[in-house]
Design goal:
mainly alpha; Helix Hairpins; 3 helices; about 75% helix; elongated
């Protein structure tokens, strides 16, 4: 059996990787992928603690997060396609067309 601290360590590494991707990268697609990595790190923690505490609550919340992440990915990709068709850069710093 894998100990709980191994799951927490893997989750922490994934979350830090996602956080660095959000803070350092400027490409919108990579930022969305980094957010997905952070959500998956939270899911690993929820499921590991749920199994450790013998409760189904963490697994239920993890399923809800997976559904939210799927919707976020679909909407995010749709926004990227609309922006890219308008010949606007996918660079996060250059996307200021929503300002007045």
């Amino acid at each position: 059996m894998i100990p709980l601290n191994a799951y927490v360590a893997v989750s922490a590494v994934l979350f830090i990787t996602g956080l660095l991707g959000v803070l350092i990268r400027r490409n919108f697609i990579i930022v969305l992928m980094s957010v997905e990595i952070m959500l998956n790190a939270a899911n690993i923690n929820l499921i590991a603690f749920s199994h450790y505490l013998e409760s189904m609550a963490g697994q239920m919340v993890a399923l809800f997060i997976i559904a939210i992440a799927a919707g976020e990915a679909a909407i995010g990709l749709a926004i990227i396609i609309v922006v890219f068709r308008g010949k606007i850069s996918t660079n996060v710093d250059e996307m200021n067309f929503l300002k007045w």
